TrEMBL record:
Protein name as annotated: UbiE/COQ5 methyltransferase
Keyword Oxidoreductase found: no
Gene3D superfamilies per the UniProt record, alphabetical: Vaccinia Virus protein VP39 (3.40.50.150)
Coiled-coil residues: none
Residues annotated as signal peptide: none
Any matching Pfam family: Methyltransf_31
Length: 285
């Protein structure tokens, strides 16, 4: 992938603020859940379509666990991960030394702006759990379409909705607020997975050149549920809880404490079960 001087990547120094509307922050607990994502559990719908020479761009790549997983599928090609957060890009780079991943690079940038790619220059654009946080997802999809080669693929995987069992009012409130926080910025939040093909149509892709499906993420007792609950307790104890209080999505610290208590109770249940549905769409240009 080449970057020309007249097509700059929107970069940020450590002291600058991204235009990103990501509402979950980048605390250790948030990044922990992101690092559990791999090409096998998050991009299996795309893998059969990859060819060794492909150039892949991963939008909103986070700590890069999925991104670097693509490398072995395109040994004669290249993989580029883009994310708006300096800290997670630094982490991604630290976990992917060039000696081990010579065809991989990471860049800091705002994917809601012009991508650092020539027209018709990329074989695959991939994005995962990113568009639901973006107020103008069609704009991102349009930009992905611009950089794709004729016949290139845009692969999108986005959350749609989630369920926790056994549930309680406090746990239901937490579940709803995860998506409400995104909606408060003008983003889609819940229901993004079922709208991917609609956004693609609005961006100029043809319905006859789409594959529309879905996947699911499930965590059950005893070990998976404990890990998953601890991840979310950590969010409430960190940036997420703070942002919800500051933005008045919750009334008081007691609301936050009640949700943490509900998560801790849930993780100890022998019947603990979490299921999240994702939409999975591939569009060919």
């Amino acid at each position: 992938m080449t970057t020309k001087p007249h097509e700059p990547l929107a970069r940020m120094s450590s002291g600058q603020t991204s235009k990103s509307t990501y509402t979950q922050g980048h605390s250790a607990s948030v990044v922990a859940s992101h690092t559990s994502r791999t090409v096998d559990n998050s991009a299996s719908f795309l893998l059969p379509h990859l060819k060794p020479h492909y150039k892949i761009v991963d939008l909103g790549c986070g700590p890069g666990t999925i991104t670097r997983g693509f490398c072995s599928f395109v040994p004669q090609g290249s993989v580029t991960g883009i994310d708006s957060a300096d800290s997670v890009i630094e982490q991604a780079r630290s976990q992917a030394p060039q000696t081990e991943y010579p065809n991989l690079n990471f860049r800091v940038g705002d994917i809601t702006q012009r991508l650092p790619c020539d027209d018709n220059s990329v074989d695959v654009v991939y994005t995962h759990m990113t568009l639901l946080h973006v107020p103008s997802p069609v704009q991102v999809v349009e930009e992905a379409r611009r950089v794709l080669k004729p016949g290139g693929m845009l692969a999108m995987r986005e959350a749609d909705h989630a369920e926790w069992e056994p549930s309680t009012p406090a746990l239901d409130k937490y579940n709803n607020l995860l998506f409400e926080a995104a909606r408060s910025t003008g983003a889609q939040g819940a229901g993004a997975g079922r709208r991917l093909h609609v956004w693609a149509l609005q961006a100029g892709f043809e319905r006859s050149k789409m594959s529309i499906g879905g996947g699911a993420t499930v965590y059950t007792a005893p070990d998976e549920s404990k890990w998953w609950a601890d991840v979310h307790v950590g969010r409430l104890e960190g940036e997420v809880g703070k942002m919800w209080l500051e933005n008045k999505l919750v009334d008081s610290q007691k609301d936050v404490d009640d949700m943490k208590a509900a998560l801790r109770t849930w993780k100890e249940s022998d019947n603990a079960w979490y299921g999240g549905l994702q939409g999975e769409v591939i569009c060919w240009k």
